[in-house]
Amino acid sequence: MSYKNPIENLYDRLTTTFENVNEQSKKRLEAYDASQLSRRIRINTGPFSGPSSDHNTKEIVLNQRFLTLIWCITYIIYEVTANKTKEAKHVTENYMEIDGQDPEVKQLDWLFNWAFDLKDGGDEQWPEGLPDPAMTTETVRIVNVIFIDAITYIMYHEVAHLVNDHWSSYKDIAEKKYLGFDLTEDEIVLSKQLEQEADTFAYESLISQDDSDEVRYHKLFGMIMAGLSTLFAHPKGSKLNDDIHPGSHIRIFNTRLREGFDRGNEFRLNRTMNTGLSMFCKLHGINIERRKFEEFTELLDYLFELIQNHADEKLKH
Ligand SMILES: [Zn+2]
Asked: What is the chain's pLDDT, residue by residue, as a tens digit (317 residues)?
């Protein structure tokens, strides 16, 4: 029997959620004809690659290894933030530092290592005994919801590239880049503008005026998780600051600034960012000083600065 990745259990829900975000987005999607957007979402099961849009077939293309990595990172960040902060030595006044001896934390490390290896051709068989999307635990149920919101956001980003015909402005730049030529200042600005435009389109497609605070909160949570997970999905050897994309860390902070919430939800979002950004620093050997911060936002700004200072270096993992 051929192996079935548990992530495949979420594909139908992913399509349904994507097509039914809200009335306005539903109408928008229905208005596109086949020359703008294909109804089919292509899942690519080959080597690891980021999400993309196929300008020939007008399909959104999602890579199974990428989806698996994003699910695992979402699980780990959520679990640490929601359930492991008691074990953490420093959470709010400093960065997240976790007791590595806790058996459940060890399990999260194992999940991380396995998922992270998928970028480099690691075995796709989900290790037995680790959490996966087909489980029915409360945490998996919540993580599946956040994951689907995160991927829906990524899908609408790709929709923007297709329906706004970004390819016609971008194809010469892509070709130049492919052939190894340096881009001009104008070309760099244009590429980054197109990416920002796609992020804004995705944000506006997901969040509606009629959303309750709770709905708005969990959608923004998904968007931030999309950004945090994407940070880890950057290919080894690439730089966070490249000529084409605004750095992932910049995109996460831009997303975070789009909506404000009450204190409780504000705190939960900030803590999630703290966990994800601290994990990233730890992975890349970026030293975080022990400092006291008056406000949570100062801590996040500090983490942003640290990552920004490394954004022109090639990623080692
Ligand atoms: Zn893009």
From this structure: 678 999 999 999 999 999 999 999 999 999 999 999 999 999 999 999 999 999 999 999 999 999 999 999 999 999 988 887 665 544 444 456 676 677 888 889 899 999 999 999 999 999 999 999 999 999 999 999 999 999 999 999 999 999 998 988 888 888 888 888 888 999 989 989 999 999 999 999 999 989 999 999 999 999 999 999 999 999 999 999 888 888 999 999 999 999 999 999 998 999 899 999 999 998 999 998 888 888 889 999 999 999 999 999 999 98
Q: Are 18 and 155 in contact (CB under 8 A)?
A: yes
Report how far ligand 1's centroid is from the alpha carbon of 50 (Å): 10
> Is residue 76 included in any domain, yes or no?
yes
Q: How far is the CA of 10 from the centre of ligand 1 (A)?
A: 23
Q: Please state the domain count of the chain.
A: 1
Q: Could you tell me if residue 315 is inside a domain?
A: no
* Residue 293 placed within a domain: yes
Q: What's the gap in Å between 292 CA and the centre of ligand 1?
A: 37
Distance 195 CA to ligand 1 centre (A): 5
Neighbours of 255 (CB within 10 A): 21
Question: Could you say which DSSP state residue 62 is in?
Answer: E
Q: Please say whether the beta carbons of 274 and 300 come within 8 A.
A: yes
Classify residue 15 as exposed, middle or buried by CB count within 10 Å of its CB (0-12, 13-18, 19+): middle
The pTM of the full predicted model, rounded to 2 decimals, is 0.94
